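Hi Q.,

Before the meeting this afternoon, I wanted you to have the iron/sulfur cluster prediction in hand. No need to reply - just skim if you have a minute. The sequence and ligand are here:
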Amino acid sequence: MIPLRQALLAWYWAHRRDLPWRSTRDPYRILIAEVLLQQTRVDQALRHYARFLTAFPTLQALAQAPEEEVLQAWAGAGYYRRARNLRRLAQHVAETGLPPTYRGLLAFPGVGPYTAAAVASIAFGEAVAAVDGNVRRVLARLFSREKPTPRWLSETAEALLARDEPGTWNQALMDLGATACTPKAPQCPACPVNPFCAGKLAPERYPAPRARRQRAVEAAALVLKGQAGYVLERRDGQALGGLWGVPMAEGEDALPALLARYGLAEARLLGTVRHAFTHKRLTVHVHAAPWPGPGEDPERRPLSRLDQKILALAEDASRGT
Ligand code: SF4
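Predicted structure with the ligand bound:
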């Protein structure tokens, strides 16, 4: 284990990614980065990280902000439940600061084992292993495991952990998975842990792909443009709850239901927008109809990425592109 650790840590100090959350020990900033990185690519997370922290530079600022402002600052990053959970967490710990332990962090909704371990190890130096998708892939390949179980992953990651510098070690493993041991094009000849890797001759076998459980769902959206903007509704539900968007419904009778809701007889089909959530792939048939009311400016509401796509399609259609 020791030569493997030395090889990876030496590589990390020479090649680590220059990311803004690497140059701070502020647990709040590290938490925001790790929550963003749960479901957002690093290049996109960089933009959202800067914007969110400009809006809410401290736990206290986040705790005092109205939910709608928090969702607006998160707009485009997707998975908005993360932003709502962060605000709730901030309200709980605004006075005391973030708990400095893995167990303490894990008690909050939206903070799973990976995020708690990343924050506890990087910000507070607790010796706990963080296992995200990158680390899972690296460990599966290092030990040629096609189907690594959560228990095996956790035990293996703990056994490998450099206990005197756990934050650095966790980030080194994450970086290796993100830049060298990538899903489709692992760079085995240049990899620092190549001599210790049991899977290097057929890395694509490890880990075996997981079955996707996304259902396909059809929906209709109704774009109603008035003199001052669009008709927007506040959404309910887990995925987009609290955000605003154009009237939308799922299922076979979605369009008649929307037309009835707004007292309209018909609408024109503009096109189709596709959007993937964790558990479903949504195909939205976007329709438009004239609207006699004022409507409102979408810039003033927190919109989901899906609604941004729908409105972009509507704008293109109205320009004739
Ligand atoms: S040798 Fe190849 S498969 Fe093994 S850890 Fe390095 S990049 Fe991944």
